[in-house]
């Protein structure tokens, strides 16, 4: 039995990044990570059961070819849930964030698809099981099952049943994230191939799991104590360390554009003037700014057109 279903999942921004897999099939990470979910920014997914041999995948109002990379990924993911081959879906995916620009739309996409499949097939699975399933679509999707701060425990098991997101019992009113769009075009090297290349070719990557473990404790402390500068420093250094491993890969992986560097320098200048402003970046040219509500107007003066999100509301 299957029914129509519609679900939303938020995008998430990692403050300690997931970079490197110990199992590429199951998306099991080499390190734990920690993110914050973006409230209303994310993906709406609608599933409609259809007669046919193949799924129909629509992205932001446009039907994709069945052979398109995204369609194949979506169909392969639905295969995990499909009990017989005649069960197909029309999948309507709508992102309110730029797709594939390093804004983790694959995370919200697979999380929303998992939630919608859970409804359409009346599976009634608990959140941790849903997080494990979403992880198999895209690693970072396991964090988008939850609101607020989320830890992805890396787990030890080979079957991955202990590798999923867990929401932190913490709130931080006034915590702001600003999205600086440098380039919304689809990135040339996706995260999956990027991290594989880094793990295989960058000697520098050896230090990454240690960096990530240390940053996880610092972030947990920062969140518990609402220590914004500790959080910002840790997140920024974590992101730049990840990018250092990418640059040290061969062939080199540099996701930055001149405008990315210009934005970083602007952040450093403002910080030198006393503003509590930090950034993080994923596998793309865009920056995500971290700041507090009381500094929002100043930040907006320097970064006009900034899309801002307050995941825990204002103070
Ligand atoms: C840099 O979750 O997109 O954004 O598991 O291969 O689908 P796959 O990778 P993905 O990687 C995200 C990498 C990152 C850091 C992060 O979000 O933790």
TrEMBL record:
EC numbers on record: 4.1.1.33
Keywords: ATP-binding, Lipid biosynthesis, Lipid metabolism, Lyase, Nucleotide-binding
Top EC category: lyase
InterPro entries associated with the record: GHMP_kinase_C_sf (IPR036554), Mev_decarb (IPR005935), Mev_diP_decarb (IPR029765), MVD-like_N (IPR053859), Mvd1_C (IPR041431), Ribosomal_Su5_D2-typ_SF (IPR020568), Ribsml_uS5_D2-typ_fold_subgr (IPR014721)
Ranges of residues in domain Mvd1 C-terminal: 182-303
Entry keyword annotation includes Hydrolase: no
GO molecular function terms noted in the UniProt entry: diphosphomevalonate decarboxylase activity
Chain ranges of the Diphosphomevalonate decarboxylase-like N-terminal domain: 9-161
Keyword Lipid metabolism recorded: yes
Family: Belongs to the diphosphomevalonate decarboxylase family.
Protein name (record): diphosphomevalonate decarboxylase
Protein source organism: Marinobacterium alkalitolerans
């Amino acid at each position: 039995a299957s029914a129509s279903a519609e679900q939303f999942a938020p995008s998430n921004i990692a403050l300690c990044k997931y970079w490197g897999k110990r199992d590429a099939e199951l998306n099991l990470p080499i390190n734990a990570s920690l993110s914050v979910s973006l409230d209303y920014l994310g993906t709406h997914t609608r599933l409609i059961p259809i007669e046919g041999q193949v799924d129909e995948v629509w992205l932001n109002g446009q039907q994709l070819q069945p052979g398109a990379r995204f369609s194949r990924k979506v169909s392969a993911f639905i295969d995990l849930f499909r009990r017989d081959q005649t069960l197909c879906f029309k999948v309507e995916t709508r992102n309110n964030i730029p797709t594939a620009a390093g804004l983790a739309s694959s995370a919200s996409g697979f999380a929303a698809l998992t939630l919608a499949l859970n409804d359409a097939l009346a599976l009634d699975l608990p959140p941790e099981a849903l997080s494990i399933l979403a992880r198999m679509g895209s690693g970072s999707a396991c964090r988008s099952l939850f609101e607020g701060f989320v830890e992805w425990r890396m787990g030890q098991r080979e079957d991955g049943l202990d590798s999923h997101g867990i929401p932190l019992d913490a709130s931080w009113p006034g915590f702001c994230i600003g999205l600086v769009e440098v380039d919304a075009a689809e990135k040339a090297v996706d995260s999956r191939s990027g991290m594989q290349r880094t793990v295989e070719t960058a000697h520098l990557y050896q230090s990454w799991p240690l960096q990530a473990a240390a940053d996880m404790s610092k972030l947990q402390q920062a969140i518990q104590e609402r220590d914004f500068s500790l959080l910002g420093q840790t997140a920024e250094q974590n992101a730049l360390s990840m990018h250092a491993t990418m640059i040290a890969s061969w062939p080199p992986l540099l996701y930055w554009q001149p405008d990315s560097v210009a934005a970083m320098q602007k952040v450093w200048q403002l910080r030198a003037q006393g503003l509590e402003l930090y950034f993080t970046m994923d596998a793309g040219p865009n920056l995500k700014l971290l700041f507090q509500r009381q500094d929002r107007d100043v930040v907006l003066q320097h970064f006009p057109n900034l899309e801002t999100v307050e995941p825990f509301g204002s103070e």
